[in-house]
Each structure stands twice: as C-alpha cells, then as structure tokens.
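Suppose you are handed only two things: the residues of a chain and a line of SMILES describing zinc ion. What would the bound structure be? This form records exactly that question and the answer produced for it, so the two can be stored side by side and reused later without any lookup.

QUESTION INPUTS
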Amino acid sequence: MSRRTVKGVGVDEQTRCAHYHSRVDIVAVKFYCCREYYGCYYCHKEKADHSERKWPKEQWGEKAILCGNCSSEFSIQTYMNVNQCPECAQPFNEKCSYHYPLYFEGF
Ligand SMILES: [Zn+2]
Ligand SMILES: [Zn+2]
Ligand SMILES: [Zn+2]
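ANSWER OUTPUT
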C-alpha cells in the first residue's frame, strides 16, 4: 500500500503528531481547504499558510480520513460511525469525536 504524505509537526509513521501522540492517535484528516492530510488541526494551524476550512456536510462522502496503521482511506461518514479502522480494526481515539467541529461543518 502506498504511503501518503501527512503534513504537520513531528508526524510519525502512523500519523501521530506533536499534539496527539497516544497509542490510538493514528488518524490523519484531509483538510477541505487544501486537500492535504495533516496530523491534526493544530498541525494545519502551524504549518499551512492559510486558514482552515471545514468539510461541508454534503461532502462527507469524500475520502478524507487516513488510518495511520494500514494507510487505508475512508469517508468522513464512515469515520463517524466507527471507533476502529474498518480495514485493520485498530482502535481509534474515542475522544476524536470532540474534535469533529474543528474539521467538519454542521456541529
Ligand atoms: Zn488547508
Ligand atoms: Zn498535530
Ligand atoms: Zn487501518
């Protein structure tokens, strides 16, 4: 499987970053504004040269989530309905849902 580029601060092999680096922080999110993957919201804030834009609800079918463990991509819609990777079953950080409003519109 091809390795996708994930931008950010101190991003490791499994997309953990300087801000979120527990065992379960293995999800990278593609930003609507630049269609680039970042380790997290703060990574985008520090590294991108523009303000972030959130995914409008009608585009939640877009593949914008990357599992850092198996490198599979899936849609925002799918991500909201699982607490582990649909491909490799690696558990995701459940606290991520607190951060949905940072990435996705409609909260
Ligand atoms: Zn951006
Ligand atoms: Zn980060
Ligand atoms: Zn996975």
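WHAT STANDS OUT: The chain has one domain: 6-103. The CA atoms of residues 5 and 37 lie 7 Å apart.
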